[in-house]
Specification:
The chain is 57% helix and 9% strand. It contains eleven helices and eight strands. By secondary structure, the chain is of the alpha+beta class. The strands form three sheets. The protein has a four-stranded antiparallel beta sheet with strand order 3-4-2-5. It has three domains: 23-52 and 142-311, Multidrug efflux transporter AcrB transmembrane fold, CATH 1.20.1640; 60-138, Alpha-Beta Plaits (2-Layer Sandwich); 337-385, no CATH class.
Length: 385
Protein backbone atom coordinates (compact mmCIF):
# COMPACT_ATOMS: atom_id res chain seq x y z
CA UNK A 1 0.00 0.00 0.00
CA UNK A 2 1.40 3.38 -0.98
CA UNK A 3 1.30 6.36 1.30
CA UNK A 4 -1.35 7.93 -0.93
CA UNK A 5 -3.77 5.02 -0.42
CA UNK A 6 -4.14 5.58 3.30
CA UNK A 7 -4.40 8.91 5.09
CA UNK A 8 -3.39 8.80 8.76
CA UNK A 9 -6.09 9.94 11.16
CA UNK A 10 -3.79 11.79 13.60
CA UNK A 11 -1.64 14.86 13.03
CA UNK A 12 1.66 13.16 14.02
CA UNK A 13 0.81 10.23 11.76
CA UNK A 14 0.19 12.51 8.78
CA UNK A 15 3.41 14.36 9.56
CA UNK A 16 5.38 11.10 9.69
CA UNK A 17 3.86 9.87 6.42
CA UNK A 18 4.34 13.17 4.62
CA UNK A 19 0.58 13.76 4.32
CA UNK A 20 0.34 17.18 5.95
CA UNK A 21 -1.75 19.93 4.39
CA UNK A 22 -0.68 23.02 6.30
CA UNK A 23 -1.58 26.30 4.59
CA UNK A 24 1.75 28.02 5.21
CA UNK A 25 1.02 30.79 2.74
CA UNK A 26 -2.34 31.48 4.38
CA UNK A 27 -0.57 31.96 7.72
CA UNK A 28 2.12 34.20 6.27
CA UNK A 29 0.77 37.36 7.89
CA UNK A 30 1.03 35.89 11.38
CA UNK A 31 4.58 34.70 10.75
CA UNK A 32 5.72 38.00 9.29
CA UNK A 33 4.09 40.00 12.10
CA UNK A 34 5.96 37.96 14.70
CA UNK A 35 9.22 38.52 12.80
CA UNK A 36 8.59 42.28 12.60
CA UNK A 37 7.79 42.47 16.33
CA UNK A 38 11.06 40.69 17.16
CA UNK A 39 13.01 43.09 14.93
CA UNK A 40 11.37 46.14 16.55
CA UNK A 41 12.13 44.84 20.06
CA UNK A 42 15.73 44.22 19.02
CA UNK A 43 16.18 47.72 17.64
CA UNK A 44 14.67 49.29 20.76
CA UNK A 45 16.96 47.20 22.98
CA UNK A 46 20.02 48.11 20.93
CA UNK A 47 19.26 51.82 21.22
CA UNK A 48 18.49 51.67 24.95
CA UNK A 49 20.67 48.87 26.34
CA UNK A 50 23.21 48.22 23.62
CA UNK A 51 25.38 45.09 23.50
CA UNK A 52 27.49 43.69 26.29
CA UNK A 53 30.72 43.58 24.29
CA UNK A 54 33.52 41.40 25.57
CA UNK A 55 37.10 42.37 26.30
CA UNK A 56 38.24 41.61 22.76
CA UNK A 57 35.87 44.23 21.35
CA UNK A 58 35.88 47.00 23.95
CA UNK A 59 39.44 46.62 25.13
CA UNK A 60 40.54 46.42 28.77
CA UNK A 61 42.46 44.35 31.30
CA UNK A 62 41.70 40.85 32.56
CA UNK A 63 43.04 38.63 35.36
CA UNK A 64 42.57 34.93 36.08
CA UNK A 65 43.21 34.40 39.79
CA UNK A 66 43.23 30.89 41.33
CA UNK A 67 40.03 30.58 43.35
CA UNK A 68 39.82 29.21 46.85
CA UNK A 69 37.83 29.64 50.05
CA UNK A 70 40.07 32.61 50.87
CA UNK A 71 39.52 34.31 47.51
CA UNK A 72 36.06 34.78 46.06
CA UNK A 73 34.40 37.24 43.72
CA UNK A 74 33.68 39.53 46.66
CA UNK A 75 37.38 39.56 47.56
CA UNK A 76 38.23 40.51 43.99
CA UNK A 77 35.78 43.42 44.13
CA UNK A 78 37.34 44.58 47.42
CA UNK A 79 40.82 44.62 45.83
CA UNK A 80 39.53 46.77 42.97
CA UNK A 81 37.99 49.30 45.34
CA UNK A 82 41.13 49.40 47.50
CA UNK A 83 43.13 50.43 44.42
CA UNK A 84 40.64 53.12 43.36
CA UNK A 85 39.09 51.15 40.49
CA UNK A 86 35.32 51.29 40.16
CA UNK A 87 33.46 47.99 40.07
CA UNK A 88 30.48 49.46 38.19
CA UNK A 89 31.54 48.26 34.76
CA UNK A 90 33.70 45.38 35.97
CA UNK A 91 32.89 41.75 35.17
CA UNK A 92 33.82 39.36 37.96
CA UNK A 93 32.89 35.71 37.71
CA UNK A 94 34.10 32.34 38.91
CA UNK A 95 34.92 29.71 36.30
CA UNK A 96 35.25 26.12 37.42
CA UNK A 97 36.42 23.04 35.55
CA UNK A 98 38.00 19.66 36.15
CA UNK A 99 41.53 21.06 36.35
CA UNK A 100 41.02 24.78 36.85
CA UNK A 101 39.08 26.93 39.29
CA UNK A 102 39.69 30.64 38.77
CA UNK A 103 38.09 33.99 39.41
CA UNK A 104 38.10 36.10 36.24
CA UNK A 105 38.20 39.88 36.61
CA UNK A 106 37.67 42.15 33.59
CA UNK A 107 37.82 45.94 33.84
CA UNK A 108 38.38 48.91 31.60
CA UNK A 109 41.93 49.63 30.50
CA UNK A 110 44.04 51.14 33.28
CA UNK A 111 47.66 52.30 33.50
CA UNK A 112 50.38 49.68 33.80
CA UNK A 113 51.25 50.83 37.32
CA UNK A 114 47.66 50.35 38.50
CA UNK A 115 47.51 46.96 36.73
CA UNK A 116 50.69 45.87 38.55
CA UNK A 117 49.25 46.99 41.90
CA UNK A 118 46.07 45.05 41.21
CA UNK A 119 48.03 41.92 40.31
CA UNK A 120 49.96 42.11 43.58
CA UNK A 121 46.75 42.80 45.50
CA UNK A 122 44.99 39.79 43.98
CA UNK A 123 48.01 37.57 44.74
CA UNK A 124 48.20 38.76 48.32
CA UNK A 125 44.48 38.28 48.96
CA UNK A 126 44.46 34.82 47.30
CA UNK A 127 47.68 33.71 49.01
CA UNK A 128 49.48 32.81 45.78
CA UNK A 129 52.57 34.00 43.93
CA UNK A 130 51.93 36.88 41.45
CA UNK A 131 53.37 34.69 38.68
CA UNK A 132 50.48 32.26 39.15
CA UNK A 133 48.03 34.97 38.10
CA UNK A 134 47.28 35.21 34.38
CA UNK A 135 47.08 38.80 33.12
CA UNK A 136 46.09 40.00 29.65
CA UNK A 137 45.08 43.30 28.14
CA UNK A 138 43.51 44.43 24.87
CA UNK A 139 43.60 47.98 23.61
CA UNK A 140 40.42 49.66 22.46
CA UNK A 141 41.98 50.15 19.01
CA UNK A 142 42.49 46.42 18.66
CA UNK A 143 38.90 45.80 19.69
CA UNK A 144 37.67 48.23 17.03
CA UNK A 145 39.71 46.43 14.37
CA UNK A 146 38.15 43.10 15.34
CA UNK A 147 34.68 44.61 15.10
CA UNK A 148 35.40 46.06 11.65
CA UNK A 149 36.72 42.72 10.40
CA UNK A 150 33.67 40.89 11.75
CA UNK A 151 31.28 43.27 9.98
CA UNK A 152 33.34 43.06 6.79
CA UNK A 153 33.26 39.27 6.85
CA UNK A 154 29.49 39.33 7.33
CA UNK A 155 28.94 41.69 4.39
CA UNK A 156 31.21 39.67 2.08
CA UNK A 157 29.42 36.47 3.07
CA UNK A 158 26.02 37.96 2.26
CA UNK A 159 27.21 39.25 -1.13
CA UNK A 160 28.68 35.88 -2.13
CA UNK A 161 25.54 34.06 -1.04
CA UNK A 162 23.35 36.47 -3.03
CA UNK A 163 25.38 35.91 -6.18
CA UNK A 164 25.33 32.12 -5.76
CA UNK A 165 21.57 31.88 -5.17
CA UNK A 166 20.85 34.27 -8.06
CA UNK A 167 22.89 32.07 -10.41
CA UNK A 168 21.69 28.72 -9.04
CA UNK A 169 18.05 29.74 -8.68
CA UNK A 170 16.95 33.35 -9.30
CA UNK A 171 17.24 36.78 -7.77
CA UNK A 172 13.87 36.64 -5.98
CA UNK A 173 15.02 33.58 -4.07
CA UNK A 174 18.24 35.41 -3.22
CA UNK A 175 16.23 38.31 -1.78
CA UNK A 176 14.07 35.96 0.30
CA UNK A 177 17.09 33.99 1.56
CA UNK A 178 18.93 37.18 2.53
CA UNK A 179 15.86 38.42 4.41
CA UNK A 180 15.76 35.16 6.37
CA UNK A 181 19.47 35.31 7.24
CA UNK A 182 19.27 38.95 8.32
CA UNK A 183 16.27 38.03 10.45
CA UNK A 184 18.26 35.27 12.17
CA UNK A 185 21.18 37.57 12.95
CA UNK A 186 18.84 40.24 14.31
CA UNK A 187 17.09 37.68 16.53
CA UNK A 188 20.39 36.48 18.02
CA UNK A 189 21.61 40.05 18.52
CA UNK A 190 18.29 40.92 20.12
CA UNK A 191 18.47 38.04 22.59
CA UNK A 192 22.04 39.00 23.53
CA UNK A 193 21.01 42.62 23.96
CA UNK A 194 17.82 42.00 25.96
CA UNK A 195 19.35 39.38 28.27
CA UNK A 196 22.76 41.08 28.51
CA UNK A 197 24.83 38.11 27.33
CA UNK A 198 28.46 38.91 26.60
CA UNK A 199 29.46 39.14 22.95
CA UNK A 200 32.85 37.51 22.32
CA UNK A 201 34.79 36.39 19.22
CA UNK A 202 33.25 32.94 19.73
CA UNK A 203 29.83 34.59 19.41
CA UNK A 204 30.82 36.14 16.08
CA UNK A 205 32.00 32.75 14.82
CA UNK A 206 28.64 31.34 15.87
CA UNK A 207 26.90 34.12 13.91
CA UNK A 208 28.59 32.99 10.67
CA UNK A 209 27.75 29.37 11.46
CA UNK A 210 24.13 30.38 12.00
CA UNK A 211 24.03 32.01 8.57
CA UNK A 212 25.28 28.80 6.98
CA UNK A 213 22.67 26.71 8.77
CA UNK A 214 19.86 29.12 7.94
CA UNK A 215 20.93 29.18 4.32
CA UNK A 216 21.00 25.36 4.14
CA UNK A 217 17.48 25.00 5.49
CA UNK A 218 16.19 27.67 3.10
CA UNK A 219 17.95 26.19 0.07
CA UNK A 220 16.38 22.78 0.76
CA UNK A 221 12.93 24.38 0.53
CA UNK A 222 13.80 26.49 -2.51
CA UNK A 223 15.18 23.47 -4.36
CA UNK A 224 11.89 21.64 -3.91
CA UNK A 225 9.96 24.77 -4.91
CA UNK A 226 11.96 25.02 -8.14
CA UNK A 227 11.43 21.31 -8.82
CA UNK A 228 7.67 21.61 -8.37
CA UNK A 229 7.57 24.82 -10.38
CA UNK A 230 8.81 22.91 -13.40
CA UNK A 231 6.62 19.92 -12.63
CA UNK A 232 3.42 21.96 -12.54
CA UNK A 233 4.32 24.38 -15.33
CA UNK A 234 1.79 22.82 -17.71
CA UNK A 235 -1.00 23.11 -15.15
CA UNK A 236 -0.43 26.84 -14.63
CA UNK A 237 -0.66 26.23 -10.90
CA UNK A 238 -0.59 29.36 -8.71
CA UNK A 239 2.79 29.94 -7.13
CA UNK A 240 1.19 30.04 -3.69
CA UNK A 241 0.09 26.43 -4.17
CA UNK A 242 3.58 25.42 -5.31
CA UNK A 243 5.02 26.95 -2.14
CA UNK A 244 2.48 25.22 0.10
CA UNK A 245 3.01 21.85 -1.59
CA UNK A 246 6.80 22.16 -1.37
CA UNK A 247 6.76 23.22 2.28
CA UNK A 248 4.58 20.27 3.27
CA UNK A 249 6.72 17.85 1.31
CA UNK A 250 9.95 18.88 3.05
CA UNK A 251 8.41 19.59 6.46
CA UNK A 252 9.38 16.24 8.01
CA UNK A 253 12.88 16.50 6.56
CA UNK A 254 13.33 19.97 8.02
CA UNK A 255 12.16 18.78 11.43
CA UNK A 256 14.55 15.81 11.39
CA UNK A 257 17.46 17.97 10.27
CA UNK A 258 16.72 20.56 12.93
CA UNK A 259 16.49 18.01 15.74
CA UNK A 260 19.71 16.28 14.68
CA UNK A 261 21.48 19.64 14.58
CA UNK A 262 20.12 21.07 17.83
CA UNK A 263 20.83 18.00 20.00
CA UNK A 264 24.66 18.28 19.69
CA UNK A 265 24.46 22.00 20.49
CA UNK A 266 22.44 21.27 23.63
CA UNK A 267 25.11 18.71 24.54
CA UNK A 268 27.76 21.43 24.22
CA UNK A 269 25.81 23.61 26.62
CA UNK A 270 24.97 20.94 29.19
CA UNK A 271 28.12 18.82 29.10
CA UNK A 272 30.84 21.04 27.65
CA UNK A 273 29.86 24.18 29.52
CA UNK A 274 27.85 22.91 32.47
CA UNK A 275 29.80 19.84 33.54
CA UNK A 276 33.26 20.53 32.12
CA UNK A 277 33.23 24.29 32.66
CA UNK A 278 34.34 25.21 29.15
CA UNK A 279 33.13 28.83 29.02
CA UNK A 280 34.20 29.27 25.40
CA UNK A 281 31.91 26.42 24.38
CA UNK A 282 29.03 28.11 26.21
CA UNK A 283 29.59 31.39 24.38
CA UNK A 284 29.65 29.58 21.05
CA UNK A 285 26.84 27.08 21.69
CA UNK A 286 24.42 29.62 23.14
CA UNK A 287 24.47 31.81 20.04
CA UNK A 288 24.33 28.69 17.87
CA UNK A 289 21.26 27.33 19.63
CA UNK A 290 19.36 30.62 19.40
CA UNK A 291 20.31 31.00 15.74
CA UNK A 292 19.24 27.46 14.82
CA UNK A 293 15.82 27.91 16.39
CA UNK A 294 15.48 31.23 14.60
CA UNK A 295 16.65 29.61 11.34
CA UNK A 296 13.90 27.00 11.54
CA UNK A 297 11.33 29.74 11.99
CA UNK A 298 12.68 32.02 9.26
CA UNK A 299 12.89 29.32 6.60
CA UNK A 300 9.20 28.47 7.14
CA UNK A 301 7.59 31.80 8.00
CA UNK A 302 9.92 34.39 6.46
CA UNK A 303 11.87 33.15 3.43
CA UNK A 304 9.25 31.01 1.71
CA UNK A 305 6.19 33.27 2.24
CA UNK A 306 8.28 36.24 1.09
CA UNK A 307 9.29 34.31 -2.04
CA UNK A 308 5.64 33.50 -2.73
CA UNK A 309 4.72 37.17 -2.31
CA UNK A 310 7.47 38.23 -4.73
CA UNK A 311 6.49 35.68 -7.36
CA UNK A 312 2.71 35.65 -6.93
CA UNK A 313 0.99 36.12 -10.30
CA UNK A 314 4.33 36.49 -12.12
CA UNK A 315 3.59 35.54 -15.71
CA UNK A 316 -0.07 34.81 -14.88
CA UNK A 317 -3.00 36.85 -16.11
CA UNK A 318 -5.33 36.10 -13.20
CA UNK A 319 -5.14 35.05 -9.60
CA UNK A 320 -6.51 31.66 -8.66
CA UNK A 321 -7.95 30.13 -5.54
CA UNK A 322 -5.37 28.32 -3.43
CA UNK A 323 -5.56 24.63 -2.68
CA UNK A 324 -6.48 23.87 0.92
CA UNK A 325 -7.57 20.90 2.97
CA UNK A 326 -7.92 17.58 1.19
CA UNK A 327 -7.10 19.09 -2.21
CA UNK A 328 -3.78 20.37 -0.89
CA UNK A 329 -3.07 17.03 0.81
CA UNK A 330 -3.77 15.18 -2.43
CA UNK A 331 -1.27 17.38 -4.24
CA UNK A 332 1.32 16.95 -1.49
CA UNK A 333 1.23 13.14 -1.63
CA UNK A 334 1.26 13.20 -5.43
CA UNK A 335 -2.29 12.05 -6.23
CA UNK A 336 -3.92 15.41 -6.79
CA UNK A 337 -1.99 16.93 -9.70
CA UNK A 338 -3.18 15.69 -13.06
CA UNK A 339 -2.56 18.40 -15.60
CA UNK A 340 -6.22 19.31 -15.91
CA UNK A 341 -7.45 22.65 -14.60
CA UNK A 342 -11.14 23.37 -14.48
CA UNK A 343 -12.29 26.96 -14.52
CA UNK A 344 -14.90 27.96 -11.99
CA UNK A 345 -17.16 31.04 -11.87
CA UNK A 346 -15.69 34.32 -10.88
CA UNK A 347 -15.70 35.52 -7.28
CA UNK A 348 -19.25 36.14 -6.13
CA UNK A 349 -20.22 39.47 -4.71
CA UNK A 350 -19.88 39.74 -0.97
CA UNK A 351 -17.16 37.10 -0.62
CA UNK A 352 -14.89 38.22 2.20
CA UNK A 353 -11.98 35.90 1.44
CA UNK A 354 -8.93 37.74 2.81
CA UNK A 355 -6.50 35.78 0.65
CA UNK A 356 -8.15 37.09 -2.54
CA UNK A 357 -8.40 40.63 -1.21
CA UNK A 358 -11.81 41.03 -2.83
CA UNK A 359 -10.53 40.65 -6.41
CA UNK A 360 -13.17 39.46 -8.88
CA UNK A 361 -10.90 37.01 -10.65
CA UNK A 362 -11.33 33.53 -12.05
CA UNK A 363 -10.81 30.55 -9.81
CA UNK A 364 -8.78 27.47 -10.68
CA UNK A 365 -9.52 24.11 -9.09
CA UNK A 366 -7.08 21.25 -9.45
CA UNK A 367 -9.05 18.05 -9.03
CA UNK A 368 -7.58 14.83 -7.68
CA UNK A 369 -7.02 12.12 -10.24
CA UNK A 370 -9.98 10.03 -9.10
CA UNK A 371 -12.41 12.94 -9.48
CA UNK A 372 -11.66 13.91 -13.08
CA UNK A 373 -13.94 11.37 -14.73
CA UNK A 374 -17.59 12.41 -14.68
CA UNK A 375 -18.86 9.13 -16.19
CA UNK A 376 -17.73 5.53 -15.95
CA UNK A 377 -15.13 4.49 -18.53
CA UNK A 378 -16.32 2.64 -21.62
CA UNK A 379 -15.50 -1.07 -21.72
CA UNK A 380 -12.86 -2.09 -24.17
CA UNK A 381 -13.96 -3.99 -27.25
CA UNK A 382 -12.64 -7.49 -27.65
CA UNK A 383 -10.37 -8.01 -30.58
CA UNK A 384 -11.69 -10.24 -33.34
CA UNK A 385 -9.65 -13.30 -34.10
Amino acid sequence: MSRGDYIASSGPGRLFRGQTAVDFYGKRRIGLIVAIVVIVVTLLSLFTRGLNLGLDFEGGDAWDVPASEDFTTDDAADVLEENGVSTTGARIQRRSGETTDVVTIQIEEVSRDVALDLTNGFAERAGVDPEEISFSFTSSTWGGEITDKAVRALVIFLIIVSIFISIRFEYRMAVAALAAMVHDVIVVVGVYSVLGFEVTPATVIAFLTILGYSLYDTIVVFDRVQENEGKYAGVRMPYEDIVNISMNQVLMRSINTSISSILPVISLLLIGSGLLGAVTLREFALALLIGMISGIYSSIFVATPLLAALKANVGRKARRERLTGDNLRAAVIGSGVTGRVAAAPTDVEGDNDDDRDGDDTSVTIVEPAGKLLTHPPRPRKKKRR
